[in-house]
């Protein structure tokens, strides 16, 4: 069938073509990763000029709906920024270790804080940020040695990252990212028309030579996860941070964005690359420590960056709901929350170590220095996931977290029950055993 009829792509101008491709993606006729006709082919089939077809693809690319793969043509993005069907949940019979969520039993109950924060209805005209919340945040940042700067409240880590990038970057700019790295950051960059420049990492964070190489390629920004790196669990240590700081010092114009999404439950202390930088932002979310549905993060940064974010916020959503800000203030002011977060950090570390230890007894090397996940390199992802599903486990394929890095699977250990580490490790060992030995085993 003619590909245009199949997908419903039509139009005699760039904007009509853009709308028809967008509709085809939204309605599921063009799936994630689907290949589109080349510019020449599209122009021929639609009887438009190649300039018109190229302009349509350019617009779709800037909006993150498609991405060009050089001579291999153009494909629909892995997660286009449209309300398309979400990824199907794991089959109900599987034990789901794929989601990256915190353990709900290690999040504070909101019942009492909600009762305490209920108050008169909030109205327009109040200051955007609750001063009590900012004061608590500043105290926290100061006591863990984070760089001092301006602070504001944003709607979670991803919201903060998006706002900071938009404050400084333009479509087409290059952004250094960890590889493997957080898939939602990759998708966000695509949606903003920004180009990801991969930087390989080990358990102590981005590799200095790799960062130096990426910076020579004129990147405008570097997004780094200082701890609880997703998916590998990497965390910066003091020595690596020193090396990276000195490399970054040669590029003072680069915006450094730190995604501290796990904060106090990461299991390792905070380390920052931002001291003394001209353009920087540190986004500390409460998603993993107090709950993802709170959608609150503290943004610290240089005064220009924070002012731009606040200014843009003020002409848009205005502020992050004061109900949420008050809830976080109440939780942070309660010593019981501090004790719970300490216990959560310890428990997550025990669960990660249990799986790393169980894998090691089978000779399987894996990564998980901090955070909620363990990253297990495998020769091929799909057969391992299929074998694990057969054994009753749902894991996450590494593919979407990788740009150039090697295959792996991600296992969320946040809610691993006692005994599960040994069982999932044994199932992985069986899946990874060479075929001959598996048959005779
Ligand atoms: C590295 C990383 N950054 C950001 C987030 C999302 O944070 P938030 O919910 O605050 O947007 C996640 C969630 O898993 C993450 O793994």
What does this structure look like?
With 441 residues, the chain is α/β, with parallel strands linked by helices. The protein is globular. α5 packs across α12 and α14 crosses α15. It starts with a helix and ends with a helix. Strands 5-12-11-10-9-6-7-8 form an eight-stranded mixed sheet, with helices on both faces. The protein has a three-stranded antiparallel sheet with strand order 1-3-2. A three-stranded antiparallel sheet has the order 13-16-15, with helices on one face. Pyridoxal-5'-phosphate (PLP) binds next to α7.
What attributes characterize this protein structure?
single chain; 441 residues; alpha/beta; 8-stranded mixed β-sheet; 3-stranded antiparallel β-sheet; 16 helices; 41% helix; globular; binds pyridoxal-5'-phosphate
Concise overview:
With about 450 residues, the protein is an alpha/beta fold.
Look at the structure and give the mean pLDDT.
94
Biggest sheet features: 8 strands, mixed
Oligomer: single chain
Structural class, from helix and strand content?
A: alpha/beta
Our estimate of the beta-strand percent is 5-15%
Q: Order of strands across the widest beta sheet?
A: 5-12-11-10-9-6-7-8
Distance between the termini: 49 Å
Shape: globular
Radius of gyration: 23 Å
Explain the layout of strands and helices.
Layout: H1 3-7, H2 14-26, E1 35-36, H3 39-46, H4 50-62, E2 66-68, E3 74-76, E4 95-96, H5 111-117, H6 131-143, E5 150-154, H7 157-168, E6 174-179, H8 183-191, E7 195-202, E8 205-206, H9 208-216, E9 221-224, H10 238-249, E10 255-260, E11 280-285, E12 297-301, H11 303-314, H12 322-333, H13 335-361, E13 373-377, H14 381-390, E14 393-394, E15 396-397, E16 408-412, H15 420-432, H16 435-440
Parallel strand pairs: 4-14, 6-7, 6-9, 9-10, 10-11
Antiparallel strand pairs: 1-3, 2-3, 5-12, 7-8, 11-12, 13-16, 15-16
Bound molecules: pyridoxal-5'-phosphate.
Residues 100, 156-158, 182, 225, 230, 259, 261, 285, 287, 292, 297 line the site of pyridoxal-5'-phosphate.
